[in-house]
What does this fold into?
Amino acid sequence: MQAENYRFLQENEERLAFIRMNPEWYRKLTRDPGQQTVFDKEMKRFFGRTPIQRVEKIGNQLQMMNMLVQMARAMKDE
It folds into this structure.
């Protein structure tokens, strides 16, 4: 592996974890180091770090909190 790619992967623990789980990216980066931005996008999608995924996660958490509040109100009324 080229030194540039090795440093790129060493900068971030998630990159190392992603490339270990998806070894095809090792080959892609070795053949074309310009694929680093695509690699980062795929890594973020894989780990749920895209803005859309974060908004969905927050929405799910709000729904859960709302459900818990409603349950608490229902138990209080009884």
About this structure: The chain has a mean pLDDT of 94.
